[in-house]
Structures are given as C-alpha cells and as structure tokens.
Amino acid sequence: QVQLEESGGGLVQAGDSLRLSCRASGGAVNNYVLGWFRQAPGREREFVAALNWAGTNSYYGDSVKGRFTISRDNSESTVSLQMNMLKPEDTAVYYCAARMSRERIAMTGDLYNYWGQGTQVTVSS
C-alpha cells in the first residue's frame, strides 16, 4: 500500500510560481508512474502531468503545457510539480497519484491506484 502526501499549495497571484511536492511511502516508488491531477469546484478532475519511473518520459495536459514541469527523485521518493506563470484558472485542489506501472503513463484518473489527500492552490487575479 502506497501512501502519498502532497505539500506546497497556497495562495499566489497571477503570474507567480509555485512548487508542489509529493512524498511516497510504503512501496518502491520506482515501480510506479507518478502524476498530478487537479479538480476545481464544480468541475471534473483534470489530468495535469505524469512521469514514467525513470523520469525520462512525461505527458502534460494541454492547459499547462509550457508552464508546468513535472520531475521526480526516486532516491527521495518524491515527485514535484513546478508551476510557472500561474493563472486564476489554475485554482484547484491538486492531487498526487501513483499508477502500478513503470512505463504506462495514463491521463485518466481511474487508471491510477493510489491518491494523496490533495493540496489547495489558489491563484488570485
């Protein structure tokens, strides 16, 4: 059983940057694809980014391409999301997720096996 714990959320202004981190415990993190999703009030969960086990292959949601960067450190069992040029529409609860596959990156949340509790990101205009 893998436990995921996010940190780094907060209130920022449009154009600012923020870095989210997620620490995994209870399993060998290098056996998992790690990713980030988000959900804004009244909206469906949205794929943000995901990374294969080695950190060599990544995918991003269209709305964050060019602004967000996902990375991982398997020695520290962490995955991070660097968010630049934040917009008010980035406001959401951000969730870290793990999928039991080393290479098969998925953009559908149902294919992920473990989830964190989420961290709130609020971007003011």
Main attributes?
single chain; 125 residues; mainly beta; globular
Largest sheet: 7 strands, mixed
Give the overall silhouette. globular
**Structural class by helix and strand composition:** mainly beta
Mean pLDDT: 96
Question: If you had to describe this structure to a student in words, what would you say it looks like?
Answer:
There is one protein chain. This protein is an all-beta fold. It is 0% helix and 49% strand. 34% of the residues are buried. It has strands spanning 3-7, 10-13, 18-25, 33-39, 46-51, 58-60, 68-73, 78-83, 92-99, 114-115, 119-124. Strands 2, 4, 5, 6, 9, 10 and 11 form a seven-stranded mixed β-sheet that branches. A four-stranded antiparallel β-sheet has the order 1-3-8-7, with no helix packed on it. It is globular.
How do you describe this structure in short?
The chain is mainly β. Helices cover 0% and strands 49% of the residues. Strand 5 and strand 6 (58-60) form a beta hairpin.
Question: How are the SSEs placed, and which strands pair?
Answer:
Blueprint: E1 3-7, E2 10-13, E3 18-25, E4 33-39, E5 46-51, E6 58-60, E7 68-73, E8 78-83, E9 92-99, E10 114-115, E11 119-124
Parallel strand pairs: 2-11
Antiparallel strand pairs: 1-3, 3-8, 4-5, 4-9, 5-6, 7-8, 9-10, 9-11
